[in-house]
């Protein structure tokens, strides 16, 4: 499984140091100023369930924190990301409030992907400028888990990255299950319609045969089949309809049967 994880946040919050600690288990005691975008890669083995392991090639993207640059490369940088890590600095209050701008801009491009809020520099507790309540409220705003880390000591750094990796795997399996269910419904609908020929099936007949199918699921699948030219939907008023299969749909059923044989 190839994945893309994107880090975001103001300059100086420790994004590069977090990546360096996770990928190389190293820490450099000087400010590493990112110019443009830095990409690191790491191979991980992620457990899923009791007897499944997923080999993951994770690409970690670390962006320059300056506003002008992030606006310039926003779409390219976030495109295809399967998870986001929003990073702020425990000693810089403004770095937390800045995420109110970073996060929505990222989600506009990525859509609904796993998001973690990482509050870095836990080792500088004596210089803390952000309260636990402020962190909790920020995390709740974006429905994101949060963790306090230290790139210097390594505390909770692996936990943050691994938690996102696990979430990416979990979502990938969930999406595949959904697609499999949709493919199953699609095939069942086409086979039923093929057997009925020009008579077709009415809405209520679908639900009598396909027990447990939800109205919106069936409607969405039939709409897709109609867009592909495989069925024709004839509406009776606002909520009732009848469906017949097209010659193209009949051909699709035959091809599917031949493939299964």
Describe the structure.
The protein is of the alpha/beta class and 261 residues long. It has two domains: 2-155, 3-Layer(aba) Sandwich (Rossmann fold); 184-260, Orthogonal Bundle (Arc Repressor Mutant, subunit A). It contains nine helices and nine strands. The strands form two sheets. Strands 2-3-1-4-5-6 form a six-stranded mixed β-sheet, sandwiched between helices. Helix 6 (157-196) crosses helix 8 (215-227) and helix 6 packs across helix 9. The longest helix has 40 residues, at 157-196. The two termini are 30 Å apart.
Set down the secondary structure blueprint.
Layout: E1 2-8, H1 15-24, E2 37-48, E3 52-63, H2 67-78, E4 83-89, H3 93-97, H4 99-110, E5 115-120, H5 132-141, E6 146-148, H6 157-196, E7 201-202, H7 203-209, H8 215-227, E8 231-236, E9 240-245, H9 247-260
Parallel strand pairs: 1-3, 1-4, 4-5, 5-6
Antiparallel strand pairs: 2-3, 7-9, 8-9
Helix pairs in contact: 6-8, 6-9
Structural class: alpha/beta
β-sheet strand percentage: 15-25%
CATH architecture of the largest domain: 3-Layer(aba) Sandwich
What spatial form do the alpha-carbon principal axes imply? elongated
Average pLDDT value?
Answer: 88
Number of helices: 9
Radius of gyration: 25 Å
Major sheet summary line: 6 strands, mixed
Between the first and last Cα atoms, what is the distance in angstroms? 30 Å
CATH superfamily of the largest domain: P-loop containing nucleotide triphosphate hydrolases
**CATH class wording of the largest domain:** Alpha Beta
Taken together, the total number of domains comes to 2
Helix content: 40-55%
Strand order of the largest sheet: 2-3-1-4-5-6
């Amino acid at each position: 499984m190839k994945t893309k994880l994107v880090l975001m946040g103001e300059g100086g919050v420790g994004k590069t140091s977090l990546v360096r600690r996770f990928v190389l288990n190293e820490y450099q005691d000087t400010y590493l100023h990112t110019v443009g975008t830095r990409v690191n890669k790491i191979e991980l083995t992620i457990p899923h369930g009791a007897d499944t392991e997923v080999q993951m090639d994770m690409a970690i993207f670390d962006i320059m924190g300056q506003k002008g640059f992030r606006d310039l490369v926003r779409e390219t940088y976030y495109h295809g990301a399967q998870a986001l890590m929003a990073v702020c600095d425990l000693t810089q209050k403004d770095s937390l409030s800045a995420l109110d701008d970073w996060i929505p801009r990222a989600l506009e491009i990525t859509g609904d992907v796993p998001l973690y809020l990482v509050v870095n520099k836990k080792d500088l507790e004596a210089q803390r400028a952000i309260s636990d309540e402020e962190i909790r409220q920020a995390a709740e705003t974006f429905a994101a888990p949060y963790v306090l880390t230290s790139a210097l000591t390594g505390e909770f750094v692996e936990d943050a990255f691994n938690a996102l990796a696990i979430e990416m795997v979990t979502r990938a399996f969930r999406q595949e299950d959904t697609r499999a269910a949709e493919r199953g419904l699609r095939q069942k609908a086409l086979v039923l319609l093929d057997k009925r020929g020009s008579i077709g099936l009415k809405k209520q007949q679908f639900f009598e045969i396909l027990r447990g199918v939800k109205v919106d699921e069936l409607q969405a699948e039939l709409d897709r089949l109609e867009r592909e030219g495989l069925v024709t939907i004839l509406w009776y008023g606002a909520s009732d309809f009848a469906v017949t299969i097209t010659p193209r749909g009949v051909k699709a059923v035959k091809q599917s049967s031949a493939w299964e044989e």
